[in-house]
Amino acid sequence: MVAMDALSAEVVALLGRITDRYIREYETAAARHGITPQQAKALLALEEPLPMRRVAERVGVEPSNITGIVDRLQTRGLVERQADPTDRRIKLIATTDAGKSAAADLRGHLRFASDPLVALTEPQRRALRDLLHLMAES
């Protein structure tokens, strides 16, 4: 294994700090609604009704695990299952009015990413986006 150079180590440490902040603020925002961070992610993923498999992809969990997350959100009245108009075998997950309100509140309290970006110019934000895409795709 090759030792990490000082610059790479600093970048990794900074990514760790950003990730820690992201997790803490996500937990705090979710707790305001009495839901888990994964439930909050699922709720925020539902900009339009989606099949369970797509919700799982957006949240980053196995399809078998999304059922429990959706069940708990449904029990809280934040989402509902709907028949897919094009395929009766598929159930779509959609936010209720309460779910839409909770999602809007969550977005308003998740400032960990948007606030620091204000300090960057538009070209800097584009460059950061492009670099993050490169990292994510490698």
In short:
By secondary structure, the protein is α+β, with helices and mostly antiparallel strands.
Structure commentary:
There is one protein chain. The protein is α+β, with helices and mostly antiparallel strands and 138 residues long. It has one domain (6-110): Winged helix-like DNA-binding domain superfamily/Winged helix DNA-binding domain (Arc Repressor Mutant, subunit A). It has helices at 6-31, 37-45, 52-59, 63-75, 97-109, 114-117, 122-137; strands spanning 50-51, 79-84, 87-95. The protein has a three-stranded antiparallel sheet with strand order 1-3-2. A hairpin with a 2-residue loop joins β2 (79-84) and β3. α2 (37-45) crosses α3 and α3 (52-59) packs across α4 (63-75). The protein is elongated, with a radius of gyration of 18 Å. The chain starts with 5 loop residues before the first helix and ends with a helix.
Topology:
Layout: H1 6-31, H2 37-45, E1 50-51, H3 52-59, H4 63-75, E2 79-84, E3 87-95, H5 97-109, H6 114-117, H7 122-137
Antiparallel strand pairs: 1-3, 2-3
Strand content is 5-15%
Radius of gyration: 18 Å
What's the CATH superfamily, by name? Winged helix-like DNA-binding domain superfamily/Winged helix DNA-binding domain
What's the quaternary structure here?
A: single chain
Distance between the termini: 18 Å
Query: Largest sheet at a glance?
Result: 3 strands, antiparallel
Give the SSE order as H and E letters: HHEHHEEHHH
Helix content: 55-70%
Level-2 CATH architecture: Orthogonal Bundle
- Total domain modules: 1
What is the CATH C level class, in words? Answer: Mainly Alpha
* Gross morphology: elongated
Provide the structure class. alpha+beta
Low-confidence stretches: none
Name the strands of the widest sheet in spatial order. Answer: 1-3-2
Number of helices: 7
What's the number of extended β-strand segments?
3
Q: Could you say what the CATH topology is called?
A: Arc Repressor Mutant, subunit A
Q: Name the average pLDDT.
A: 91
